[in-house]
Amino acid sequence: MTSYPQWTPASRPGIIPLHPLTFGTILGRSFSALRHNPKVLLGFGLVVQTVAYLLVLLGVGAVAFLTFSRLDNIPFYSEDFEAIAIGSTALTAVAGFVLGLAAAALGVIVQAVVVAEVAHGALAEKLRLGMLWRRVRPVIWRVVGYSFLLTAAVMVLLAVVVGMLVLIGFAAVPVAIALGVLLVLGAIPLTLWLTVKLLLVPSAIILEDARIGPAIARSWRLTRGRFWPALGVIVLISFTFGAVAQVVSLPFSFLGTGLSTVFAPTGDPDATAIITLVVTTVAAQVVTLVIQAVAVVVQSTSAAIIYIDCRMRHEALDMDLLAYTEKRDAGEQGLADPYRVGIGRVAAPRPVPHVQPAYGQYPTAPQPPYGSPAPYGQYPAAPPPPAPPQPVAPPPYIPPGQADPAADGEHRSS
């Protein structure tokens, strides 16, 4: 008896098509991916960003209140007033720096969860937050450590540059100012270049379980040949959310001015200050917090999609993802993680895509040469058409009564 393979339905589409992506697809899917799992992406991102913002705001505010409140009991002309003021400022700055690092660590956790969600969303899998966290938890400290190392490297570089400018400024102030301007202008393209080259480091750590050093090397290699599309996506997303934040803040400024005119027509400074604080500051900050939360999620989503696109181009990751989805939908269990199958593989060059024929024309398939066996199910190639007959020149005209020189030559030879 002959057994036929069991029919299986087509694989469910994920948040991105499983083939190398174009610039528009990467940019559009970075925003549309929010609809795939909004409870995890937007909900988790918004909660974590809110907690981080409140942590920094309340912590710095409490430290500033406790330190600067000591100045109320000390006269302004006292010798200890200046020392206590400097100490209070230093303590507040240190508290802000430490709490800022804690908030940055929370932001890194959001990015890690978003990368894991996008990786599963590309396979049409929708996981809960607990399942995503179980995948991210073993490598989360590695991602946080990379973020802190990058921050420390930037701070050390800035300290060295500023120290050199200060030393040059003691000798020649105009030269220091000119060098400072040149360094600022040169730092812009350098920052953009390093941002793109290191963009895929968190994705490599999370999805490939790579160490920090190999992850940096992986990001450097995978972004080769995809620098400009990645840079365009990052810049457009940043400009979009920056413009949205500016546009949203304008109505609150007008609203604060209007409410101040209504509730404090006499120009009472206390009432005007309260209305400005509540409407212009608090409400605007709340809306800005929501925009920042969405921006972090979209930027992390775009980085994960760029990572998948680069691996599909360099390592044929799309073939592994397609094979995984087909086997999963067919009911197979215990499948290997497709993101860890072909790491470091060099993909063969892809064939030139078939050109779609114009409307009203039939597609033409390439024909094998005449005499070669045709593939199964196809007719053999037709023989080439015969060559057209060559025209024959008419004989030369000989007037009557004149001998033919050719015939005369023949008689003489005979």
Detailed description of the structure:
This protein has 414 residues and is mostly helical. The chain is built from twelve helices and no strands. The protein has helices at residues 23-32, 38-68, 79-121, 129-136, 140-171, 173-197, 201-208, 212-222, 227-263, 269-315, 317-329, 405-413. Helix 2 (38-68) crosses helix 10 (269-315) and helix 6 (173-197) packs across helix 9 (227-263). The longest helix has 47 residues, at 269-315. It is elongated, with a radius of gyration of 36 Å. It starts with 22 loop residues before the first helix and ends with a helix. The relative contact order is 0.10.
List keywords for this structure.
single chain; 414 residues; mainly alpha; 12 helices; elongated; disordered N terminus; disordered C terminus
Number of strands: 0
- Counting DSSP H or I runs of 4 or more residues, the number of helices is 12
Mean pLDDT: 79
Q: How is the biggest beta sheet arranged?
A: none
CA radius of gyration is 36 Å
What is the global morphology?
A: elongated
Structure, briefly:
With 414 residues, the protein is an all-alpha fold.
What is the topological layout?
Blueprint: H1 23-32, H2 38-68, H3 79-121, H4 129-136, H5 140-171, H6 173-197, H7 201-208, H8 212-222, H9 227-263, H10 269-315, H11 317-329, H12 405-413
